[in-house]
Design goal:
- The structure holds 2 protein chains of 2 kinds.
- Chain A is mostly beta strands.
- Chain A is built from 3 helices and 10 strands.
- Chain A has one domain: PITH domain (Jelly Rolls).
- Helix content of chain A is 9%, strand content 38%.
- Chain A is globular and about 35 Å long.
- Chain B is of the alpha/beta class.
- Chain B has a 6-stranded mixed beta sheet with strand order 3-2-1-4-5-6, with helices on both faces.
- In chain B, α7 packs parallel to α8.
- Classes of the chains: A mainly beta, B alpha/beta.
- Chain B: Keywords: Repeat.
- Chain B: GO terms for molecular function: polyubiquitin modification-dependent protein binding.
- Chain B: One of its GO terms (cellular component) is cytosol.
Chain lengths: 159, 594
């Protein structure tokens, strides 16, 4: 992934196009769920985080109400427990932890501390032109702790 | 090789070579033979050799004659010895001895047309498979048989069911995903009991089966029936549990049968690892004489989890059952259907009357009216705080539904059909479990709080008390009585009815089981009880808060409770644990009803 400049003038936050009924997250702690990281009011609150439950991996499935083009993603989280290796899959429904390795991700990246502060990660342009649903697989975290905490996830793109 | 004289033929030759056929077309040409010098007659057509066998064979001429007859246009009936094929017939032209005929059969068996073995019909259907009934003396009857396997059911909120038997080293999936309850029942009955239980393999196979389910939108749930000892340690089970939790699969565990030390703890550890916010449950079923289905019907596995999803599952699985008004086919059971319908109307009338009274009267009566109409919500909320063993907060949504009609219908659907399903299954594992007082009193405890106010419920309780002598353990005709104890109960209006019902059930000391366990025989008792019930329901409309204290009195009445206890099998009222429970029950009753 190229760490391109954040040219998001023509990009919008894709929050409006998220199909909230179909949003799922596997291995999330029920007290700290995905809405804490995605939804408008919740994610800006630093105290509300999405935390993983049994181990440090998370699988987030975000369907959209229409086909979108994804430009970049922002992951924000604490230094130690924030996500490190993140893989994105497009248009694969109902993935589980057992089949994350079955197909190659559309894009994958290793987040740095800058990214965790808010620097967006630009995704590969070609593969994200026709996104109906997005699956985010967080494989491990920065400090190799037992749980991963994600404070904010923002998706930038256009329709 | 041609030997002119069969007598001089070497014995090593087979007879069919030793004796040439006398068919001129098949005569080999001899050197030295020509038209001018014909073969000597004894060479050209040797004398037929006498047949060593003693049978009388038809001559070739006779065979030819019969064959020519068969070639006639009229079709001959099938011969007991089928007719020789054409090329054999062509050889049988000249007259030969029996021997040649015999030779034919002996020497060239491939030419002889032997009638084939009768072909077996490919799909022979025998009698319809019945669930095997364990004979009384068989070793599988008692709970402590070491060879009960674990059965795994993979189930989702709508009924796609895989059925997996987990005996042995691997788990074998018994039948494919199906929405039809009958198929799964059939496979239940076809499972064999034996081998060791491999719980982890079974769960993993179940997970795999879930992974390939058709409807991926719904919650995943695995139900484990663990009857045998578990050979894995806690750590393995916890790892499995974590994996299930990670994939958001809920797990219901039914611990029954063989009770080795550590098994309940292991299963509890597994549950703790899997449990995500109370979606997974465990039920420990101690050995006893009642069927597994009886015990399970009252647990959260069937009343709580999934809420309307499970009810929808039961309803859909019931298929035709859900199309009826009250989940009961009027053709099969007209009295019951009639009773249900009448009860519904009575309930509605009563609620309307109560609501009317609530509108116009003082606060005291208003409160009673409100309670009558929203009676289910209050017991549920109270039950949440005070119940311990069975999490009532997971109570079925249908229990809380506002109309009596809706809840009654759905309850019948849930309990009735799943009841039958479990009945058929449990009859195939005849594990004899004696009815633990603790489980029963917890059920009663919650049921006293949440017992439903429909009068037909009371009817069955009363009828079951009366007809307890007609109880037959093998009939699964009407075992819904146990469900009534588990349903919601509005405490104010019907406490008098309940009191009467309990009194009547206690009246029959020879009844082997409590009012909750007996079969009803509706045929004889319906008429007078219907009349009686109508009378009673008309009378009870003016019940108010004061009747709650009656319930207090009922529960607090030591002698009454001990008399109920005495009527139950296997319960010793002098047991200290029983006495403790009685005391706690009274304490709880006071908390609830004040």
């Amino acid at each position: 992934m190229s760490s391109a400049s954040a040219s998001q003038r023509n990009q919008v936050d894709l929050l409006d196009f998220v199909d909230w009924l179909g949003v799922e997250c596997l291995n999330q702690n029920s007290g700290h769920s995905l809405v804490n990281a995605l939804k408008q009011g919740y994610r800006d609150d630093e105290g509300l985080v999405l935390e993983s439950d049994a181990d440090e991996q998370l699988l987030i499935y975000i369907p959209f109400t229409q086909v979108v083009k994804l430009h970049s993603v922002v992951f924000m989280g604490p230094e130690e427990e924030g996500p490190r290796t993140v893989k994105l899959f497009t248009n694969k429904e109902h993935m589980g932890f057992s089949n994350v390795t079955d197909y190659p991700p559309s894009d994958s990246s290793v987040l740095s501390q800058e990214n965790l502060k808010g620097k967006p990660v630009t995704v590969k342009y070609v593969k994200f032109q026709n996104v109906h649903s997005l699956t985010i697989f967080i494989e491990d975290n920065q400090g190799s702790t037992d749980t991963t905490k994600v404070q904010k996830i923002i998706l930038y793109g256009s329709t | 090789l041609f030997w002119p004289n069969p007598q001089t033929a070497p014995p090593s030759l087979p007879p069919f070579l030793a004796t040439p056929s006398s068919d001129p077309s098949r005569q080999p040409r001899l050197r030295g033979a020509s038209a001018q010098t014909p073969l000597p007659p004894e060479v050209a057509s040797p004398a037929p050799r006498p047949c060593p066998c003693t049978r009388q064979h038809p001559t070739r001429a006779a065979i030819r004659a019969s064959l020519s007859a068969s070639r006639s246009p009229a079709p001959t009936p099938p011969l007991p010895q089928p007719a020789l094929p054409a090329r054999v017939a062509s050889r049988a032209t000249p007259a030969t001895s029996h021997f040649s005929h015999c030779r034919l059969r002996r020497a060239q068996p491939w030419l002889v047309h032997i009638a084939p073995a009768p072909r077996r019909v490919a799909y022979q259907r025998g009698p319809p498979p019945q669930p095997p009934v364990t004979p009384p003396g068989s070793p599988f009857e008692s709970h402590d048989d070491r060879r009960l396997p674990a059965r795994l059911l993979t189930r989702e909120a709508t009924p796609h069911r895989h059925f997996i038997g987990a005996a042995g080293h691997w788990a074998s999936k018994s039948c494919a995903s199906t929405t039809d309850c009958k198929v799964y029942l059939f496979h239940c009955s076809g499972l064999e009991i034996g081998g060791e239980m491999n719980l982890t393999a079974g769960i993993q196979v179940a997970q795999l089966a879930l992974k390939h389910r058709q409807n991926k939108k719904q919650q995943q749930r695995i139900i484990v029936f663990a009857g045998s000892p578990i050979k894995h340690d806690k750590k393995t089970l916890e790892a499995i549990g974590k994996k299930l939790k990670k994939n958001s699969v809920a797990l219901d565990i039914v611990d029954f049968g063989e009770e080795e030390d550590g098994k309940p703890e292991k299963l509890e550890a597994l549950l703790a690892a899997v449990n995500n916010n109370g979606s997974s449950h465990i039920v420990h079923v101690p050995p006893g004489s009642s069927a597994l289905s009886d015990v399970l019907i009252s647990t959260p596995i069937f009343t709580g989890d999934g809420g309307s999803g499970f009810a929808a599952a039961a309803a859909a699985a019931a298929g035709g059952v859900s199309s009826y008004d009250f989940g009961v086919d009027p053709n099969l059971d007209p009295e019951l259907a009639l009773a249900l319908r009448l009860s519904m109307e009575e309930e509605r009338a009563r609620q309307e009357a109560a609501a009317k009274k609530a509108a116009e009267d003082s606060t005291k009566v208003e409160k009673a009216g409100e309670q009558a109409s929203s009676s289910r919500d209050i017991p549920i909320s109270e039950a949440t705080s005070s119940s311990s063993a069975l999490p009532i907060e997971k109570k079925d949504d249908l229990m809380l539904s506002s109309t009596a009609g809706g809840s009654a219908k759905a309850q019948w659907e849930i309990h009735g059909y799943i009841w039958y399903a479990l009945e058929a299954w449990s009859s195939s594992i005849r594990c004899s479990t004696w009815y633990n007082w603790k489980i029963f009193i917890n059920t009663l405890n919650s049921s006293f709080k949440v017992f439903m106010a429909n009068w037909w419920t009371m009817q069955v309780v009363r009828l079951s008390g009366r007809a307890a002598s007609a109880f037959s353990p093998d009939s699964c005709h009407f075992k819904m009585t146990i469900t009534f104890l588990c349903m919601n109960w509005s405490q104010d209006d019907d406490s008098a009815l309940l009191q009467q019902a309990l009194a009547m059930s206690v009246d029959k000391p020879e009844s082997g089981q409590s009012s909750g366990m007996a079969d009803t025989d509706m045929s004889d008792a319906v008429d007078q009880d219907l009349a009686l019930a109508l009378k009673m329901s008309v009378q009870d409309n003016a019940k108010d808060l004061s009747s709650q204290t009656e319930m207090n009195k009922v529960l607090g009445d030591q002698s009454f409770m001990s008399s109920i206890l005495a009527s139950l099998p296997g319960v010793d009222p002098n047991d200290p644990s029983v006495k403790d429970l009685l005391a706690s029950l009274q304490g709880k009753a006071e908390v609830l009803y004040t």
